[in-house]
Design brief:
elongated, mainly alpha, single chain
Length: 167
């Protein structure tokens, strides 16, 4: 139980990091607009920073969305189904999320490691090593995978206990 608490706190920290990144995007774009329009001094790095920050935000908050079950579902169709069918679809959903997250972790890690070993840089204004940009994919995939496994386990437990629930 302590390990799950540490994981939950880590997810909360990742959300706060994402909020800080989003704030930095807003501030940098506001400064860019002012510098471009008032002083005729555009900053070329703002667009690139925003792109990288959005990539990080996506993978940092994805696990929390899986935890809160706010991933994409068709509520109208799901609402028409009985509890047993919804539970079965929940198990299938978590299995698919586990598969996709495993792909993120495996291929993201191998590509990131390859880019790091070869020292490949992104040929843009900031010129950041590509490995530093893409490492968030396997890291975020790891958190998504762990959260999906937790949800999968909980759904399987409910499926096993469905007779007790009257399903």
């Amino acid at each position: 139980m302590k390990l799950k608490r540490i994981f939950d706190v880590t997810l909360d920290v990742l959300v706060w990091v994402s909020a800080i990144l989003l704030t930095l995007i807003v501030l940098s774009v506001a400064i860019e607009v002012f510098l471009r329009s008032a002083l005729n001094r555009p900053q070329a790095w703002v667009l690139e920073f925003s792109e990288y920050a959005l990539l990080f935000i996506t993978f940092l908050v994805a696990a929390l969305l899986v935890k809160s079950e706010r991933n994409i579902t068709v509520d109208i169709v799901i609402g028409l189904m009985n509890k047993k069918t919804r539970l079965l679809l929940s198990i299938i959903q978590y299995a698919v999320i586990c598969l996709v997250a495993s792909i993120f972790v495996y291929f993201g890690s191998s590509v990131t490691l390859d880019l790091y070993q070869r020292g490949i840089y992104n040929p843009t204004i900031i010129q950041v090593p590509m490995a530093y940009l893409l490492f968030i994919i396997p890291v975020g995939g790891f958190f998504i995978l762990i959260q999906a496994l937790i949800g999968f386990h909980a759904s399987l437990r409910k499926w096993r206990d469905r007779r007790d629930l009257g399903l």
